[in-house]
Design a protein that fits this description.
Helix content is about 50%, strand content about 15%. It has 16 helices and eleven strands. The strands form two sheets. The chain has a seven-stranded parallel sheet, sandwiched between helices. Helix 5 runs parallel beside helix 6, helix 14 runs antiparallel to helix 15 and helix 15 crosses helix 16.
């Protein structure tokens, strides 16, 4: 088990749960960061006494600096520079990447260069630049342990030797609108989309879970984490969220990981691996289960999922464009400036408009990310202007 960690995004959903896990296990939080929720960060700082803190937002970071003046806690830079400072903090053995979006990419690479363990909760890092990140991790000898419940499940199930794995089985609940038609989902509001039936998550990932884009991003992430081809991954709709994922081996054996839907469990495992420790999570009572259901996804009713799987097969800059355009579109939806169904429309349009590069460099990936975000913003502004 590690003794000290950095938590990038400690005030978000995964970050807050990571803080609680650290408190319970006695793991030192050497550095904490937030986007702009400095009130909660100050509470966490008082409880955990980190050596370093920062806020991504420049104004919030200055308020944080003023609040902590004379306390002995170092307040770093705002923006990406602050995240990189935190990710490479000398006394930490591990970095929990709990920030949302492609902003986690460079700090993750910096942490890998510093040979930290990466407790990876930021899926966009591998979606956008999985080949770059995994190659860097192999080169530097850095450990990457997934925090996503599905990937943590696969990670725990993969006891087989290379060549014995036939298929990765990724499960997903199907979200709150499972089975709805496009006409029905046109009525979906942000309040409806953020209410996941089984999991407690942040707003952006809740919307991604509703559209099933999240499962598509996890599909791409799994390719890189476990070095498997798209045809070696199968997505299963599993409404109960009890089987978090499974693997099928070449002899027909299926090994699955089951548990209550509680993100504290994969967070804890990423911090204690290869050991296991007692947890405070509720225990799964198999006798209380009325049944476990599995079904194939209806890709016609889940166009975001279909789009993501197609991008996984295309490779190149397609996943980066997909992830960035989706992130921008979801932000507009949460701000009530875009309809629910238009999330897919915007992402599909971005993929059709941004130049595709089959074998991109890191700079190409970052440029594709920026171009996709700009495309969605400009498309939205154009649509609003023409309707006024």
């Amino acid at each position: 088990m590690i003794n000290s960690t950095v938590i990038l995004g400690s005030t978000g959903s995964i970050g807050r749960q990571s803080v609680e896990v650290c408190k319970r296990l006695g793991i030192k939080a050497a550095a904490l960061t937030t986007n702009k929720n400095i009130d909660l960060l100050l509470e966490q700082t008082k409880a955990l006494r980190p050596e370093y803190v920062c806020a991504f937002d420049a104004g919030a970071n200055e308020r944080l600096r003023a609040a902590l003046q004379g306390t002995g806690v170092a307040v770093g830079h705002s923006g990406e520079a602050g995240l990189i400072e935190a990710a490479t903090w000398n006394s930490a053995e591990c970095v929990v990447t709990a920030v949302s979006g492609a902003v986690g990419l460079r700090p993750t690479l910096a942490a890998i260069d510093a040979k930290k363990r990466i407790a990876l909760a930021n899926k966009e890092t591998l979606v956008c630049a999985g080949s770059v990140v995994m190659a860097r991790a192999r080169e530097k000898g850095a450990e990457i342990v997934p925090v996503d419940s599905e990937h943590s499940a696969v990670f725990q199930c993969l006891t087989a030797r290379r060549g014995e794995l036939r298929k990765v089985l990724l499960t997903g609940s199907g979200g709150p609108f499972r089975g709805w038609s496009r006409e029905e989902t046109a009525r979906v509001t942000p309040e409806m989309a953020v209410k996941h039936p089984n999991w407690s998550m942040g707003a952006k990932i809740s919307v991604d879970s509703a559209t099933m884009m999240n499962k598509g991003l996890e599909f791409i992430e799994a390719m890189h984490l476990f070095s498997v081809r798209p045809e070696d991954i199968e997505i299963l709709i599993h409404p109960e969220s009890v089987v978090h994922s499974a693997v099928e081996l070449i002899d027909g054996t299926v090994i699955a990981q089951l548990g209550v839907p509680d993100m504290a469990l994969p967070i804890q495992y990423a911090l204690t691996w290869p050991e296991r420790r007692e947890s405070a999570s509720e225990r799964l009572d198999l006798t209380a289960l009325s049944g476990l259901n599995f079904m194939k996804p209806d890709f016609e009713k889940l166009p975001c999922l279909a789009l993501a799987v197609d991008c996984a097969k295309r490779g190149g800059t397609a996943p980066a464009v997909l992830s960035a355009a989706n992130e921008a579109a979801v932000a507009l939806f949460l701000g009530r400036r875009l309809g629910y169904n238009e999330i897919y429309d915007c992402v599909a349009a971005a993929l059709g408009s941004i130049d595709f590069i089959a074998e991109p460099s890191l700079e190409d990936i970052l440029a594709a990310d920026a171009a996709a975000r700009a495309f969605v913003r400009e498309r939205y502004t154009s649509c609003i202007s023409s309707s006024q």
